[in-house]
Amino acid sequence: MNERPIGVDLFAGAGGMSLGFEQAGFDVAACVELDPIHCATHEFNFPQTKVICASVADVSGDEIRRRAGLGSRNIDVVFGGAPCQGFSMIGKRAFDDPRNRLVYHFVRIVKELDASYFVFENVKGLTVGEHKKFLNEIVEEFSACGYDVLLPWKVLNAAEYGVPQDRRRLFLMGAKRGFELPRYPQQPFRKPGSAQGDLDLPVGPCVWDALCDLPEAEAFAELVDSDCVKARYGEPSRYALMLRGLTNSDDDYSHPRLYDREMLTSSARADHTQLSRRRFKATAHGETEPISRFHKLDPAGVSNTLRAGTASDRGAFTSPRPIHPFSHRCITVREGARLHSYPDWFRLHASKWHGFRQIGNSVPPLLARAVASAVVDAIGVRPARPRKAIALGDPSLLYLDMREASARYEVPSDTIAKRQRLAANG
After folding, report:
1. CB burial class (10 A; 0-12, 13-18, 19+) of residue 145?
2. Do residues 383 and 185 touch, judged by C-beta distance below 8 A?
3. Torsion angles phi and psi, residue 389, rounded to 5
4. Neighbouring C-alpha atoms within 13 Å toward the C-beta of 344
5. 252 with 23: CB under 8 angstroms?
6. Which long-range contacts link 405-411 to residues 24+ away (Cβ below 8 Å)?
7. pLDDT-derived band of residue 129, with 50, 70 and 90 as boundaries?
8. Which of 95, 92, 146 is nearest to 117 (CA)?
């Protein structure tokens, strides 16, 4: 075969997994995402993907096919990471907990779409203690629907797949009964002789490989009131060359994007007090500043896990953002995106709060690409490399507030509960 297989992204967020699967050779035909802000960002970055702004609980496989114009075409893979919040008491199934029904709907949609493969992503904590019982129930549910699951399951660390960040996530993969099961991808940047997930200094890209060529955001007054500016970049590392699109990657089958390479985007400045800056300066690389509890990045190491903080309906609390290794400030959204393996053409929401939340909620694209490539190998397809570059969406999508985004996708403005307070610096 020499065609691009088709994927559907559930709980898509801004599109980290969408991008990884596209890079592996899939065309992501549709995505389902509840948050209108995330939908708008996904639409900007993936203008050829049908964005369905809804809860997975409220859509069917037939509706996804109809709205994405798929007809009766085969769906090769469904992928995504459903939230898991409730766990059973003794004698009860965690699957029956109302808080875990989203996982049930993930399984339901895989079955309704009659997908050949699925990839379920989640927190590593699902593999331990009582949580493991729920994971076993998920495997049983897939089996009852006619799917074999690759066992034992694995927790993969993004740092072992070329991402300069210590980020561990569970991946559960399966295939329709009778189809070849995929294999977990090898870790190309795993230190020889180390236990899985052990990290000292990285074998792959480090923090400074990700940040070294980015213009200093605080050199531009425009970034006080804007998130983008024309700027001159520095000398890139090999990793930065890849994210800037200045070198060809043999295993990147994504559609090239048309964008202005001289624009520094997703880089709105933070407003720190001079006292905070002095504390940031005094903090050693790799240590935590004791007042803010912010971690100062070690330029020769990998980033700590970039987290999303809480959503609007849970208070909109900002998760601590790392301190830049040399500038006495927290990193920008673009710097976070670099540490997450997003290419520079990929833009996040213009606000720092939404932008960092989108990064923290997403799977690093390079990690998603490795997993997706394993599915491609199991399918037995040779992906076609697109030659024609596509234009990104309307930049105004990145500046919509919740009311405006909700109106665009014709959903209630309280689909995501109103923020309870403004997060600091964002």
Report:
1. middle
2. no
3. -75, 145
4. 26
5. yes
6. 405/36, 405/37, 405/39, 405/40, 406/36, 408/36, 408/40, 409/36, 409/39, 409/40, 409/51, 409/53, 410/53, 411/36, 411/53, 411/54
7. confident
8. 146
Full DSSP string of 47-75: TTSEEEES-GGG--HHHHHHHHT-TTPPP
DSSP-assigned letters across all residues of 296-354: BPPTTS-BPPP-----GGGT-PPPPPPBPSSSSSBPPHHHHHHHTT--TT----SSHHH
**Locate tokens 């203008």: which residue?**
47
What sign does the dihedral 377-379-382-385 (CA atoms) show?
A: negative
Report the alpha-carbon distance of residue 358 to residue 352 in Å, rounded. Answer: 10
pLDDT at 421 over 90: no
Q: Would you call 228 a catalytic residue per the annotation?
A: no
Q: Please tell me the predicted confidence (pLDDT) of residue 424.
A: 33
Model-level pTM greater than 0.90? Answer: yes
Q: CA distances (Å), 15 to each of 19, 250, 259, in order?
A: 6, 22, 18
Helix 101-112 and helix 131-144, axial crossing angle in degrees, nearest 10: 20
Helix (H, G, I), strand (E, B) or coil at 385: coil
Please state which of the ranges 100-109, 141-150, 171-180 shows the lowest mean pLDDT: 100-109
- Identified catalytic residue from 31, 39, 53, 84: 84
